[in-house]
Design brief:
By secondary structure, this protein is mainly alpha-helical. Helix content is about 50%, strand content about 10%. It has a 3-stranded antiparallel beta sheet. A hairpin with a 2-residue loop joins strand 1 and strand 2. The longest helix has 23 residues, at about 20-45. Bound molecules: manganese (III) ion. Manganese (III) ion binds near residues 27, 78, 160, 162 and 165.
Length: about 200
Amino acid sequence: MAFTLPDLPYPHDALGAHMSKETLEFHHDKHHLAYVNTGSGLIEGTKFADMALEDICKTAFSEGNQALVNQAGQHYNHTHFWNWMKPNGGGTALPGKLEGLVSAYGGFDKMRADFITAGTTQFGSGWAWLAIKDGKLEVTKTANGENPLMHGSQPILGCDVWEHSYYIDYRNARPKYLEAFIDNLVNWEYVEGMIDKA
Ligand code: MN3
């Protein structure tokens, strides 16, 4: 089954100044589409064609199939990334299960600071993550198209720190972008919904 580009769950201009229409037009309509098209070409006629996207990510990584790690990883990451944001998102009020995990981790402020540090210190392109491992929240980062599925944990929130995600709106200020993501964009209900996959 070929990859397909999901529609954005909101209009391109819905995230306002925090993530502009121009950024979403390039990032969703062009960058994500390229991962979909290239990834579909890689899996066509192979054992991966009928696999769930999560399994493609894990298997490609364990087999050292770097080309497919890049494309399938980025398709998975971006498909969720659009849903990890919403208009008027962010804030410190968390749904119940997430609130419990964050509390056990050390509280919201620690989680926020560690997430921003993870994204800021990812040298070059990659992602900052909240993930679940052995029932506990962890803050991690990965390079390029990798994600926590490939490293044995369940992603529940990811922020794209490739320059294409923030350079139009924030130029080189990656920390400001990460702050705006947590404070003004995150869809915590969608994050809560991914906890059950762990
Ligand atoms: Mn991206």
